[in-house]
């Protein structure tokens, strides 16, 4: 129990400290997307204070000083704040596996992140920070094969809908039925974990053109959005 408390304090701070808006164990819930294996969302992974700390760190990097620059990439040694973020993700998964019986048990269908991925070292060695202005998104894609399985995405600043669409294997299938499309509502401070089917058999994309970002009949207010994607390069790949 003491170990759990220590991990909780390491990840989210001491609940008796003044940072009372930080997310605590009781609010850290994981949602599984029922249609897609290997896709998990933790809606309240970062508190507002943690989000603004991260945004300050990103601003300090100076990557987006030029308005024409909307993406920064790092390989190998990541900035300290990204390494800390990676540790928080690791510890949050480990903790949830320990405390939430629904997420444990080693069955890949219901586990948050397979242990073979969780216990690799380092967990992540590649970072992409994307900056999207209102109306900007990212086309449907499967992340490049030079990255291993097991990807984490943090959303900051503005909400969006990420859509997942089944990868089409052959033309024959394409004529039969439209691909299944699954929307995922990403709020600031949320964490997405993507592995297995979600990483290889589904494309993901974000279309933020006016009129497209609809959720429960309402259009989402589009502002600047920052995302942090953490991945690991395949061992035989060069950056
Ligand atoms: O911005 C996002 O939330 C996703 C980014 C992404 O899919 C990528 O960089 O491959
Ligand atoms: Fe991606």
From TrEMBL:
Domain Fe2OG dioxygenase: 123-234
SUPFAM superfamilies from the UniProt entry: Clavaminate synthase-like
Coiled coil: none
UniProt-listed InterPro entries: AlkB-like, AlkB-like_sf, ALKBH7-like, Oxoglu/Fe-dep_dioxygenase_dom
Pfam family, one: 2OG-FeII_Oxy_2
Entry's Gene Ontology BP terms: DNA damage response; fatty acid metabolic process
Assigned GO CC terms: mitochondrial matrix
Protein family: Belongs to the alkB family.
PANTHER family registered for this protein in UniProt: ALPHA-KETOGLUTARATE-DEPENDENT DIOXYGENASE ALKB HOMOLOG 7, MITOCHONDRIAL (PTHR21052:SF0), SPERMATOGENESIS ASSOCIATED 11-RELATED (PTHR21052)
Name of protein: Fe2OG dioxygenase domain-containing protein
Organism encoding this protein: Lithospermum erythrorhizon (Purple gromwell)
């Amino acid at each position: 129990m003491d170990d759990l408390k220590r991990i909780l304090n390491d990840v989210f701070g001491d609940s008796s400290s003044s940072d009372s808006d930080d997310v605590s164990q009781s609010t850290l819930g994981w949602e599984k997307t029922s249609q897609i294996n290997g896709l998990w969302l933790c809606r309240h992974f970062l508190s507002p204070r943690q989000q603004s700390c991260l945004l300050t760190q990103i601003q300090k990097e100076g990557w987006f000083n030029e308005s024409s620059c909307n993406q920064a990439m790092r390989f190998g040694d990541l900035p300290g704040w990204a390494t800390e973020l990676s540790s928080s993700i690791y510890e949050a998964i480990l903790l949830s596996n320990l405390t939430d019986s629904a997420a444990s048990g080693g069955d890949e269908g219901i586990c948050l992140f397979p242990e073979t991925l969780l216990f690799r070292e380092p967990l992540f060695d590649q970072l992409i920070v994307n900056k999207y202005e209102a109306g900007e998104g990212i086309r449907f894609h499967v992340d490049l094969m030079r990255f291993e399985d097991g990807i984490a995405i943090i959303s900051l600043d503005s909400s969006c809908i990420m859509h997942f669409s089944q990868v089409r294997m052959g033309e024959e299938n394409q004529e039969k039925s439209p691909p299944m499309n699954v929307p995922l509502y990403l709020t600031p401070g949320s964490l997405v974990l993507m592995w297995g089917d979600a990483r290889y058999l589904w494309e993901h994309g974000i279309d933020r053109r006016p009129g497209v970002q609809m959720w429960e009949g309402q259009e989402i207010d589009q502002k600047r959005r920052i995302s942090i994607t953490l991945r690991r390069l395949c061992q035989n790949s060069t950056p």
